[in-house]
Amino acid sequence: MKRFILLWAALVLAAVSLAQTSTWGLMQLPYATDALTPVITRRTVELHHGKHLAAYAATLQRLVEGTEYERKSLEYIVRHSTGVIFNNAGQVLNHNLYFEQFSPTGGGQPTGRLAQAIEAQWGSFENFCEEFEKRGTALFGSGWVWLAQNADSTLIILQEPGGGNPIASGRRPILGFDVWEHAYYLDYENRRAEHLHNLWNIIDWQVVGERFR
Q1: pLDDT digit string (tens) for 78-96?
Q2: 36: left (phi over 0), alpha (psi -120 to 50) or beta
Q3: How far apart are CA 111 and CA 119, in angstroms?
Q4: What's the pTM?
Q5: Which site among 47, 116, 189, 194 is 20 to 30 Å from 18 CA-CA?
């Protein structure tokens, strides 16, 4: 009986450890890989999620083993790490937020408090979209363009190079567009601006709105 209890305890501890270290594992998509076509095709989703994001998650898992970050949340790692750990943690967090904000039935406009905040900051939703696309198109090289919430609840558009996330500067990420070439090149080649413009057609504003506090 004693051996059974010890074995059971070991299994419980192993399960807890796995749960604590799997927070940056590869996310499951909330839709089929072809569901966002034609805005983002199945081929791009399979490459972007199944190859690029999977590689970031696996690399992060390997890098944090035996470090102070091994059992920390993904958000904590992005806030406190630097270098290669930050790069991979940022990309995992970024892509999780990115894929979660899409829906095959998305589009339209935000409602409620987020809509009011956007209108207060940019005058209209159309003005916001235009500025957001402009900032994303103008970002040199690879990176992200974010709608983020400041500590005082106001909104800001940020250009983040590489795997940058607003969390690192004390802001809350609300909406993020990936402008790394692997996000759009198979479907749009060098037409980044067209890709960014089309993404509004698949935004799940309920998901995005819930991020605004």
Answers
A1: 999 999 999 999 999 999 9
A2: alpha
A3: 11
A4: 0.87
A5: 47
